[in-house]
Amino acid sequence: MHLLEVQHLHVTDRHTGSVLLRDSSFHVKQGSCLAIVGESGSGKSVTCKSIMRLHKAWIRQTGEIWFKGEELSALPERQMRKKRGKQLAMILQHGMRAFDPTCVIGVQIGETLKEHYGWSRAEIEANMSLAMMSVRLNNPVELMNKYPHQLSGGMLQRVMIALAFVLEPDLIIADEPTTALDTIAQFEVVEQLIALRERMNGAMILVSHDLGIVRRLADDIIVMKDGEIVERGSANVIFSAAQHAYTQRLVEANRALNGHFERLKGGGLGLVEH
Amino acid sequence: MGSYISRRIALSIPLLAVISFLTFLLVNLSPLDPAEVVLQAQGVPMITDELLTQTKQELGLDRPFLIRYWHWALSCLQLDFGHSYVTGQPVWSQLGPAFLHTFKLTIVSAACMIFFSIVLGVICAWREGKLLDRSVRGISFFLTAIPSYWLGAMLVWLVAVKLDWLPTSGMESYRSYILPVMVLTISYASIYFRFVRSAMISNLNADYVLYARACGLPEKKVTVHLLRNSLQVAISVFCMAIPVLLGSTVVVENIFAWPGLGSLTVNAILSRDFPMIQAYVLVLAAAFVVFNALADVLQAAMNPKLRKDL
After folding, report:
1. Are A51 and A44 in contact (CB under 8 A)?
2. B221 with A83: Cβ contact below 8 A
3. Nearest-CA distance A81 → chain B (Å)
4. Which pLDDT score is estimated for A179?
5. What does the pLDDT look like over A31-82, one tens digit per residue?
6. Residue A7: beta bridge partners?
7. For A188-215, b where at least 16 C-beta lie within 10 A, e where not — what string?
8. Where is the ABC transporter domain (chain A) (predicted)?
9. What ipTM, to 2 d.p.?
10. Is residue A241 over pLDDT 70?
11. Which of A6, A60, A219, B60 sits a CA distance of 20 to 30 A from B97?
């Protein structure tokens, strides 16, 4: 049995009547990484929120979500809440906005760890420090006493990864974890995501439109467009022999960009040739 | 934080100086001759030029404008706002107690108004778009549209006269507060709860709320974060509501015969009692400056980002 099995997930906005996600079915294998690729508004984030059951009241979702043999949609909210963070962890796109701007980041971290483990302050500090060191955040105690605006987006992203380290979830949902970062921060975050997967031996859903990152992390890929899955398959197949015209275009555009980037790296000559 | 507070207070001092100057200037720009006003108030039958010059000398009005301002400003610092043209008594002996009465009414009303604004704002934000939210907003729209003198008169008629539950006027006991506070709370809370509601709604969509929930935090904890952030916006609005209330209790004070600033000032304006008007404008402007500074300090206390500026 798969770790996560989503069947006929259908999401509609009751205010506007529009369909956000149309009859979507996919699965995530134990220990593997599934990438969801597609342009913005294609339903990638909606899919993530549906699994976490974090939609607004007026967003209606139907279909079944089987996670470790349990149907998540049928769980009472209290039990679902216990799974969030502990078994299903999320890493958001904007590290800068993911923490309450009026508190030091240690507050939100502490509340989360206290909720799931009932730890004391000292235990929280000790465990979190270890995890933060492992994602190369030095001076963890000092960092936890800083406000979000005093840290960079990449650092906050790694704080979220460190928190996931401590919580040891079975499934990590990373919703565009690198989109808002510069290249160097992107590299660091991707390294840490890979390390996180290796250490947890957990599964991951990676939402991204950066195919370079997808290629490094993903085992399987689904491609979404306008709320529908238009193509699916293993990463190798998608990158070498995409069937759908949309996927071909995506891969092609990525290749062209990479080629351009390689030429730039090769020196000024690339520019002259154009 | 301490240095922020001292810097913020230091910033208020020049502001107060400018305000006092403008107040003095504006009253002095009045085409009326203060000496004439004084003589009329004293009931002098024949106002001669001689009498006018003499009165001017007595009041010190023959001295240059800037010198008069300087003396006035210095004595204002000692709460000596001069003598009333009408009664001849020191201005502060009338203004002080009246200010205190209005201030009491304002503080109680502001507390009620803030309480109801937060409660209604939070409830409406949680039930956004639902029947409860829509009906609260509908009723509040209706209540905002009701003029406070009509609302006050109706409440006096119903609660004090018909049902005889509460006193109609005066300020003998805490029971006298109920009706005027009700009128002010209804008029203002129905406007101000919208600030809380919209701040809550925009924060509900913020990423940190999503992340807090995704981390499995219980709704109670999420709400605390939400309130901290939403009230930050509302706090400055609330702080500024206090001086606004101070200056706008005239109608309510008249209905409930509240011996406050409102009735005193209207009389002062009607009888052109310049020292009294000057003092009133200055006291109210000072209240604005003080509460504005308080709003900034409270906001900085809640938002670390703001502490760096200034």
Report:
1. no
2. no
3. 5
4. 78
5. 899 999 988 888 899 999 999 999 988 899 999 999 998 999 999 999 999 9
6. A64
7. bbbebbeebbeebebbbbbbbbbbebbb
8. 4-251
9. 0.88
10. yes
11. B60
Dump pLDDT digits (tens) for A124-159: 999 999 999 888 888 999 999 999 989 988 889 889
**pLDDT value, residue A273:** 39
A4-265 architecture in CATH?
Answer: 3-Layer(aba) Sandwich (3.40)
Q: Is the domain defined by B92-308 classed in CATH 3.90.10.10?
A: no
Chain B contacts of A58, Cβ < 8 Å? 129
A15 interfaces chain B, CB cutoff of 8 Å: yes
> How do residues B73-101 score in pLDDT, each as one tens digit?
888 888 888 888 888 888 888 889 999 99
**Could you give the CA distance from residue B249 to residue B263 in angstroms, rounded to a whole number?**
9
Instruction: Collapse the DSSP code of A25 into the 3-class scheme (helix H, G, I; strand E, B; otherwise coil) and give the result.
Output: strand
- Across the interface, do B129 and A58 touch by the CB < 8 Å criterion? yes
Closest residue to A147, CB basis, from B212, B232, B304:
B304
Minimal C-alpha gap between B303 and chain A (Å): 5
Please state, in angstroms and rounded to a whole number, the distance separating the CA atoms of residues B200 and B204.
6
**Whether the Cβ atoms of residue B294 and residue B300 lie closer than 8 Å to each other:** no
- Look at phi and psi of residue A209 and say left if phi exceeds 0, alpha if psi is from -120 to 50, else beta: alpha
